[in-house]
Amino acid sequence: MAQASREERKKKVVEVLNQARAMELQAIYQYMNQHYNLDNMDYGDLAKNIKLIAIDEMRHAEDFAERIKELGGEPTSDMSGPVEKGQPVEKIYPADSKAEEDAIEAYNQFLRICMENGDSITAKLFETIIDEEQKHLNYFDNVNDHLKRLGPAYLAKIAGTSASTGPASKGFVIGGGA
Ligand code: FE
Ligand code: FE
Hints:
Strand content: under 5%
Distance between the termini: 51 Å
Low-confidence stretches: none
Order of helices and strands: HHHHH
Largest sheet: none
Bound molecules: fe (iii) ion
Helix content: over 70%
Number of helices: 5
Mean pLDDT: 95
Structural class: mainly alpha
């Protein structure tokens, strides 16, 4: 069997980059919606961290777009799925843990597809971003754990905390996390 042409291999990589970008775009809108909700409920610290994570996802979406451009593709502006609005706190954290797990699983598959198509640069980009998604997952799991073990007592401690991320935020991972 003849090897796929360079153009065909590039196309496959652009395809997975755009799938990943669509997941990031969905995450950005989902996390922004949660950030406003949590802010309304006056859970400042929770709102702040989700806002920072949304900023990380924006950076990921941009990193994927840059690489798509380098490969001669067109970055998608579609989201991978709909945004759920008005989720209660108890729904937000299990949903977000699952979203990060799904991203890690998908990006590992995409990384393999990049390697199969001879693109170690894009594979490395996925590897870097998988590390960051793992940090998001750890944070969401941690909050989930507190909510399960302490419930209202944990939320009472959070109520009234500041939602401020300060000026020119670097996001969650680069800014140093929760
Ligand atoms: Fe991301
Ligand atoms: Fe993430």
